[in-house]
Amino acid sequence: MDYTKINKDEILKWLKEHLTDERYSHCLGTAECAKELAEQFHEDENKAYVAGLLHDCAKCFDNEKLLDIIHKNLKVDENELMNYKTLHAPVSAYCANKDFGVCDNEILSAIRWHTLGKKDMTDFEKIIFLADKIEPNTRDKEYREEICKILKEDNGLDKALLKCYKETIKSLVKRGLKICPVTVDIYNNLIDITNSKECDKVNKKN
Questions:
Q1: Is 148 left (phi over 0), alpha (psi -120 to 50) or beta?
Q2: What would the pLDDT profile of 145-200 be if each residue is shown by its tens digit?
Q3: Domain range 8-205, CATH class
Q4: Domain boundaries, the chain
C-alpha cells in the first residue's frame, strides 16, 4: 500500500485487533469519505485514504499508555492535555510513522491535527478533519448531509470547518466542559477567513 511499509490487509488486521468494532467501522468510513473529498477538492486520493484509515489507530489505547507515549516521545502543548479525548491524535500520528512506516509529512500532520485542528490548515488537513466528522458509517446522517451541502458552496472547505467548530463549541458549552484556547483561536480565524473571502467575492462582482 502506497505511503506505508505494510499492505492494506495487514493494516486492516491490526486495526481490527486494536480497535472496537464501532471504531474500526468509523476508520473505514473516514478513509472512504476522505478519498471522496480528496477527489472533490483535487487532492491525492490514496494519501487521503491512508490518513483516514490510520487517523484513529491509537484511539483505544488507555489514557496511561497515551500519556506515557506523549511524555517519552512527543511535544504536546499543555492546552491539549486538558481533554483526554484528544490525546489519541498525536499518538496516532506517532504510531502511523513508527508502526506503519508512514513518512509523508502531510499524512502525519493531518492525523496529528484531526481532532483539535489548527490555524491555517492545508486543504488536505481540512479534508481529513472533515472526513472524521461526516463519515457515513457512524456519524449522524442529517449532520453529514448538511456539511456535504456546505462543501459544494464557494469556499466550501472553510465554511464546513466553521460549521464544525460552531457545533463543537456549542456542545462543550452545553455540557459544561472546558474549551481549549486553540479551538477558540481557530474559530475566530475561520470567521475572519470566510468573511474576507465573501467580501472579495462581492468586490469582484462589483
A1: alpha
A2: 999 999 999 999 999 999 999 999 999 899 998 888 889 999 999 999 998 876 76
A3: mainly alpha
A4: 8-205
